[in-house]
Amino acid sequence: MLMNLFKFKGGVKPPSNKLQSNHLPIAQAPMPSRLVVPLHQSIGGTPRPVVEAGDKVLKGQVIGNADGWISAAVHAPTSGTVLEVAMHIRPHPSGLDSLCVVIEPDGKDKWITRTPIDHKAVPPADVFHHLQQCGIVGLGGAGFPAHGKLTPTKGVPMDELIINGAECEPFITCDDLLMRERAEEVVRGIALFRDLLQPKTVIIGIEDNKPEAIAAMRAAVDAQKEPFSVVAVPTLYPAGGAKQLIRVLTGKEVPGSMRSTADMGVQVFNVGTAYSAWRAIAHGEPLISRILTITGNVHAPRNYEVLIGTPMGELLALAQPHPDTDGILMGGPMMGFLVPNPQVPVVKTTNCLIAHDDRLFPPKAPEMPCIRCGACARACPHELQPFEMYWFSRAKNFGKTQEYNIFDCIECGCCSYVCPSRIPLVQYFRFAKSEIWAREREKNASDQAKTRFEFKQLREEREKADKAEKLAKAAAAQAAKKAAEAAAAAAESSASPTPDAPTAPLVAATTDAPSATVTPENDAKRATIEAAMARAKAQREAVQPKNTESLTAEQQKVAAEIEARRVTAHLIEPEPAAPAPTSEKPE
Amino acid sequence: MFAPAPFLLKDVSVSQVMIQVCVALIPGIAAYASLVGPAILVQLVIATLAALIAEAVMLKVRGKPLALFLTDGSAIVTAWLIALTFPPLAPWWLVVTGTVFAIVVAKQLYGGLGQNPFNPAMVAFAICIVAFPALMSQWPSVGLQLSLIEQMNIILGWAPRVDALSGATPLDAMKTALKLGDGSFDVATLLANQDIYGNFAGRGWEWVAAGYLLGGLWLWHRKLITWHVPLAFIASLTLVSGALWLYNPAQFASPLFHILSGGAMLGAFFIATDPVSGCTTPRGKLIFGAGCGLLAYIIRVFGGYPDGVAFAVLLMNLSAPVIDLLTQPPVFGMKDKA
Known about the structure:
The complex is a heterodimer of chains A (587) and B (338).
Chain A: E1 27-28, E2 35-38, E3 48-49, E4 56-57, E5 62-65, E6 74-75, E7 80-89, E8 97-105, H1 124-133, E9 160-164, H2 174-197, E10 201-207, H3 211-223, E11 229-233, H4 242-250, E12 266-270, H5 271-283, E13 289-296, E14 302-307, H6 312-318, E15 327-330, E16 337-338, E17 352-356, H7 375-379, H8 386-394, H9 398-403, H10 414-418, H11 425-494, H12 503-516, H13 524-543, H14 553-568, H15 580-584
Helix pairs in contact in A: 2-3, 2-5, 8-11, 11-12, 11-13, 11-14
Chain B: H1 14-36, H2 39-62, H3 66-70, H4 74-85, H5 92-107, H6 120-131, H7 133-136, H8 148-156, H9 170-180, H10 187-192, H11 194-197, H12 205-221, H13 228-247, H14 255-260, H15 264-271, H16 282-302, H17 309-326
Helix pairs in contact in B: 1-4, 1-12, 2-4, 2-5, 4-5, 4-6, 5-6, 6-17, 12-15, 13-15, 13-16, 16-17
């Protein structure tokens, strides 16, 4: 089928180095003596361990449960005994530890009961759950849980489903071999994704340096009578980047800031993901192994089917590394990294191990100043200006790096590859990105602290205001009461009651109340003044006799009567508290 | 062992880039040498030695690794451009002064390789033409045949600077004639003087320009320069000279004369394309090249200097940062939003 292909700008053509490892069929790697299965192997939540040291596990048994929607379960790659659930070094450039389940194989390789499902007979939600339970994640690199990508964005029609078989990184041939040998199941997996996503077209993109894989995939598509296009795309690194492949096959450019390509009606899956998803659906097999290229400075480069959790050093030994090998590269030479030590285990996203030596990868010449030749800008597949971003990263002017769209950088390494000054540009960009992230975290933390502090202040002011209001009301009530008492006493004593005596303090109290009801919006000064006044008043009241305050009405009545009698008996003068309300007015 | 990705690197380096620029200059130098004699080769050697010594001293003073930066080839490119733009029989100390100023002030004092805002060779030219206008305008008369020894003696100051040296470039000769002219000279009659002007732009000079063009095209083929700057340079020079030529062919020379004479071709392919001091965005390069061509024309035709390429390039160097800022291309996926 003829298709109009598009070009993406930039890209480089490093020597492909694929011929060393793609001439032999996939071999089964032997069972290692110990499997170290990290729980965090995909983007999203870290699965929670559900086994303990000493537990017997079966092959395919869940050892870590998905934590949240964007997360996928982790399984025992073989039957055996859990030795420990502990921190071990993970395959990451940081060399940091993460929680791993260490399993000692019992050699029986006994499967748990596998439950295939018929994805056409059950609702999609059940299929998603099944895929999540089987730990299916993207095998192309990032390891995004597959079920999370199988729902179209609301309101955006799914135009194209793209299957990524480009495998543009030098040295790596695992997808090539997978397509050659297991094309039928790959195509069935693609049909599964098609059934779930309902795209208008399905395009399988494979770089034209893999003619055997293209032929095998075409044959499988024809055999299953699927309307999929198998398209040979020009070999140009990084054609296998999701956004580059989308561009080449559809002409659509998904902006770097757009997280999900589904927002533009495209979804991309790696061929390996399609294969694993099909194994999970049709055979109930969770993702416990993968195909892995072992190549580089070795005697016998080849692809192996490898259990997740196998220590990399043991695998490299299979390919008989030359004695001058001085490290293991995980991934390709463009985006991969040297693993911290040979005990690091293979994870779901490990597609290649390259024995490193100075002959294959000569040590870098000293870094020279940038001469602004612009080779990096011409090589950048995201059409960025790496030399400008470098300049500002180096100057730690991170705001400027963001103006130059540093977060659109996919760290493909094209800029570093072409730089005549040998500047490790990608390193500068990673540094700038992580600094920006760190600063954002700090800023968020300080923003939070600030909000908390402001809220605390607000609350304290409100409490003060409330208190002032309460005190004012209480004082008013008390004054009114005292006035009433006085009036009553006066009435009783003189038998000629002045009718407006009790009302006067009441009026005073009501006019006074609004000033005490301070809304939080009122300025703090006013609140402070009033709070101070309230405090002063409270102090004044504290020195007055208080034992009459908490009396019941009956007691008060008795007290009032006694008081009245005492007044009548002229034992004491009438209490001077009657004009008390006046003291509440601001001085 | 720590090494960041990518582990594969293309076989390129700054010195490779600079060596290729020098190689690309060879056809032009060959034509030049056949036109004015081996003096130009002597000047190239003098300039190269002066540049390397000045660079070494400055690197030492600045505490930079000598071997790494002396071998990057950038000082040699600067030296060669100076030798090729100065009069071929200029006294040795003039070339040395220009070169030392270029390396010490225009390059190293700004921070060395990659940090100079102005093209060092053009700074040298501008300084010398302002400081020594007479010496910078003495070009060998056409047809002057001197042996290597005689030329050496003139350059080294052991022989008197004979009158034969006070010739002018065809460009300068034409301007002077047209300016002095009380109407008795026009371009057509001037060009009819085949002794000076040859077929297009000065006897023999068109071959030098052709040599630079050839080298420039090779640089483009090798992807060391892009087409933007040279094309915009030549296009704007052609357009503006063509417009005035059509308006008054008696007073203004044809575009072909302007493209093939003076420093136009060298400037378009080797000077205005200097990445350090020029623009970097595609649209910026077009503006930069067009600006150089336009300013060069204005200065060489209406200004007081024999040629305008150096000042044109310096003025555009001055504008390059803001042009770059204003011409940032949209990134992948943001083209319809830009």
